[in-house]
Amino acid sequence: MATPEPRTKKVCVVMPAYNAEKTLERTWNDLPMDWVDDVILVDDASRDRTVELAQSLGLHVLVHPRNRGYGGNQKTCYREALARGADIVVMVHPDHQYDPAYVPELVGPLERGECDAVFGSRMLGGRPLEGGMPKWKYLANLFLTGVANAIFYCFLSEYHSGLRAYSRRYLETVDLEGNSDDFVFDTEIIAQGVFHGLRIREIPIRTRYFPEASQIGFWRSVRYGFAVLGVLFRYKLHVKKVRRYPLLGTFPEPG
Fewest Cβ atoms nearer than 10 Å: which of 91, 109, 139, 249? Predict the structure, then answer.
């Protein structure tokens, strides 16, 4: 684990949770708490004991009375983190698929003001298939990332990682509430950030795939892929001033 840097910014870890009882404690135990000031878990109407376990661990817990979806869960996470004074917000999935040990590497560049968001990239991590990523998901990731790079001119190695850190500035600049409540939220928040000129950096990570880790199936992933392409298409029309994309606000200024 990296040695904690002298920090001036409040770091909040948010956990969007759904049926995470079997993996939550492992995730919590792996958090490098020297780098974290606050931990929030938002439960999206789980059917197991996620809420009770989170409360017993001492986490700050919010509960959705009905399931709102992955994007809807993130909206609550970020609103609550900002309300509690976070300067840096790190999303850590409580299913233990993404290693919380990367939190210091996510936080460091934001603490130093070098960028506005830091994403963990499985592609930079080397050999993502060795972590258990299904081959079809790997190929789809490469394809969607290539299209996104061509549209955004941002040139990231991956746009679909669930391990991310955002600055307060990033979260206050984008329109969180205008985004989808579904999985495509992750692409929409990037599109907003790129449009507003926010700076995104990547770090290499590795992930683990195992039965208890949450994953979306093949056909749900197909729908997600088409939703991502829809965001990219609307983004392109907006920046070309062909058709306004409400998520991005007004057309870009000339020059």
Answer: 139
